[in-house]
Amino acid sequence: SDLSILFIGDVGSNKTEGSRIIAKTLLHPDIEFRNYEVPTLNFDDLIGFVNPKHLSKGTLEFVPTPLSIWNADAVLFDEINRANPFIQSKLHELIRTRTLMGLSTGLKIVFSAVNPPEKYQSGYMDMALASRFACIQVPGIEVMKEAEVDKIISNNGHNCRSYDLKAILARARRCELKEEEQDKIYQMCKRVMRELVNQEILFNARQLKMMSRLIKSSLLLGYASGLSLFSEADTVTACITSVIPELHGIVRTHADAGIIKGSIRSIVSGFKLRDPVTISQNIKELCRVNITDSLAWVTAMKQMADMEEDIDALKQAAYRVKILIGKEVIEKELAHNLLEHITAQITTQTLLNEDAPISRLLYRANEIAASV
User: Fold this and answer.
1) Helix, strand, or coil here: 197?
2) What band does 157 get if pLDDT is binned at 50, 70 and 90?
3) Which end of the chain has fewer CB atoms < 10 Å from its terminal CB, N or C?
4) Are the beta carbons of 365 and 351 closer than 8 angstroms?
5) What is the pLDDT of residues 87-114, one digit of tens each?
6) Ramachandran assignment for 249, one of left (phi > 0), alpha (psi -120 to 50 degrees), beta (any other)
């Protein structure tokens, strides 16, 4: 998709070396790769020195140095969230257009990296900058399987199965999507956009285009590689969520990332898999669904409960959630939050029907909640 990538991960999680390996694999082993530590980066480091001969002729050209950006094929801007305002404004241009002061740099791949702000107190990113990236969470060693840890200890993972990624990309660029597939992607992206409008998400037209490009690229990679993983619902969901910085903890937000990811997953399932969760028409139908995606089910149930006025249907939903808690089908905290949400809706609808006096509202509300 030719988008700039933002790696989000712990110190020592291989963001820098991983960027170098990916760039050399996709381009050429002998490429010029630059790694800039952004907190200490000066503008002169990027541009080199002004060529006075060209300046006297009224043209602008820079004399490159071993550190400057002009001869680089790929670059990593490390700790970009700690950039000073002047450098950050210059990085905006590099990330967006691969140019600097309007001059082409020759960059083919742009990576950036940050440590999770909440964990390292490293500072949140400016939304205008963060929304220009496709965000990728780099897994820490604590979430890896034992076999993956063994590969790191033995040879940094280089013994794992390899693919000719460069050839796959070349084939993918020659592939085309069918018209009906493109239309399905557009409809899905518009549905996601409308869902995000109802959440505490800042979403713009550029992100909408990035989302569409990522999904198309993923499907084309599937055609080129023969690997089904590129068209799976989880992969498409990851493409979509990668352009929403609020879901990655790198910008300040009050948005509930879990609920929003579940909503997006539900939409993707409906377009891709015709998931029963998505096609359920009411709470009673949703209660009968055999759950395979707990987050999508919880999200759909919460949305239906918000619109439901039938107290018996809401009580049936509450009973179903309790059963699922006992069977450990749904993560406990997620299930309890949903149960509280349904209980609040039952309480509201019951009070509306009873027309209770104001003096008894609080007592009655607690009584109804306790009965649920």
Assistant:
1) helix
2) low
3) N
4) yes
5) 888 899 899 899 988 888 989 999 999 9
6) left
What's the Cα-to-Cα distance from 338 to each of 106, 300, 304, 342, 349, rounded to whole Å? 51, 11, 11, 6, 17
Beta strands 33-37 and 74-78 are parallel
User: Which residues are CB-neighbours of 326 under 8 A, at least 6 positions away?
Assistant: none
- 314-372 residue pLDDT tens: 999 999 999 988 888 888 888 888 999 999 999 998 888 887 788 888 888 898 888 88
Look at the pTM and tell me if it is higher than 0.85: no
Contact 79, 114 (CB under 8 A): yes
Contacts 24+ apart (CB under 8 A), 304-313: 304/280, 305/341, 305/342, 305/345, 306/345, 308/282, 308/283, 308/345, 308/349, 309/349, 310/283, 311/346, 311/349, 311/350, 311/353, 313/282, 313/283, 313/284
* CA–CA distance, 277 with 122 (Å, rounded to integer): 39
**Chain mean position to CA 136:** 7
Nearest residue to 206 (alpha-carbon basis) of 130, 268, 131, 111: 131
Q: Kindly give the residue spans of alpha helices, DSSP state H, lying in 175-288.
A: 179-197, 205-225, 233-241, 257-272, 276-279, 283-287
The helix (run of H) or strand (run of E) holding residue 162 is none
Q: With b meaning 16 or more CB within 10 Å and e meaning fewer, what string describes 237-276? A: bbbbbbbbbbbbbbbebebbebbbbbbbbbbbbbbbeebb
Helix axes 205-225, 165-174, angle to 10 degrees: 110
What are the structure tokens assigned to 91, written together?
A: 């990085």
Number of H helices, E strands in the chain: 18, 9
CA 268, CA 280: separation in Å to the nearest integer?
A: 15
The candidate with the shortest Cα–Cα distance to 269, out of 301, 287, 302, 295, is 295
**Residue 279 to residue 131: CA distance in whole angstroms:** 32
Neighbouring residues of 146: CB distance < 8 A, sequence distance ≥ 6? none
